Amino acid sequence: MLEFADISKINAADWLELNFIISNIKILSKEVLTSNIDDYYEEKQEENVDVEFEDLMNNMYNEITNRKRILTDKYFLNNSIDTIDLNINIRNNEIYKFMLFLSTHNIYGSTKLKGKKLSQAAMLFEEVITDILEQFSGNAKRIGHPRRNMPTNLKNSINVLCEYMNEPFNSFDDLPKYSKDADVDIISWKPYDCRPGQQILLVSCKCSPDWEEETIVPLDLWTSLINFRVHPHIGFAIPHVISDIEKWNSQSKIKGILFDRLRVLNITSKIKDVELNREIKEWNNAQCDLLRRYKL
């Protein structure tokens, strides 16, 4: 098992998921879990840190139950009376592993991503969400900065997007100087036939644990850049899990359609793009090796 992590940096249920993913564990007894976390709890008491042990355990088990409720048979852990059981081999699900590792990267010293490594992981996250939205809606393009498969210049990228989407391109002189991607990382669209009028989603992707404070898609700006025939929707993707339904509802009103780790797992378990799947698998393997250093 992994050392129990600083609970100020991680949801205990995420730590539990990590244990099942990086090892060959199929069943964990709650007695063993209690013993492991109790050691951490005693250390925190010695440090005069206020940690309620019973609350910690109950919250972890309740969260596992809640994730199972949301995903039903697609969720891989069962919370039974005496054990937590693995019922699906999640270790082959590169998407979920990637999002979990990215969500929890800052809890152990050597797994923490900084600088170029964090930027690369954030770009891969945008690529993964693009792949998923393309599977879901039929069409999606990543325009987040730095772009890999679209023109470097944002104005040129928007022009290319308009051709793909069959939407009118608005002529404009200059975008604001700060506009590397104008706070939109992905655009997905779903036409119904060859005529105008389709579902369009403008998505912003964020990896930060402080994602609630992140800016939303500037819809007024984008409707001035593209003359959408039908008003687009906005969306927001994160690698974390949003468990609190009140938070989910309030953030949906602010940020639009939310894509957290559970919703992504509900959409698909596979990356369609072969090269992207290879990149994600390599990234996951490297992060997994680092995590195993913290096994007890």
Overview of this protein structure:
The protein is α/β, with parallel strands linked by helices and 296 residues long. It is built from 10 helices and 8 strands. Strands 4-5-6-7-8 form a 5-stranded mixed beta sheet, sandwiched between helices. A 3-stranded antiparallel beta sheet has the order 1-3-2. Strand 7, helix 8 (245-255) and strand 8 (257-259) form a beta-alpha-beta unit. Helix 4 (94-103) crosses helix 10. The longest helix is centred in the middle third of the chain and has 23 residues, at 115-137. It is elongated, with a radius of gyration of 21 Å. The model has no long low-confidence stretch (mean pLDDT 89).
How would you briefly describe this protein structure?
This protein is 46% helix and 12% strand. With 296 residues, the protein is an alpha/beta fold.
Spatial sequence of strands, sheet with the most strands: 4-5-6-7-8
Which class of secondary structure composition applies to the elements? alpha/beta
Which of globular, elongated, flat, extended, rod-shaped describes the shape?
Answer: elongated
Low-confidence stretches: none
Q: Could you describe the largest sheet, including whether it forms a barrel? A: 5 strands, mixed
- Count of separate structural domains: 2
Q: Based on DSSP secondary structure assignment, what is the total number of beta strands?
A: 8
Order of helices and strands: HEHHEEHHEHEEHEHEHH
Mean pLDDT: 89
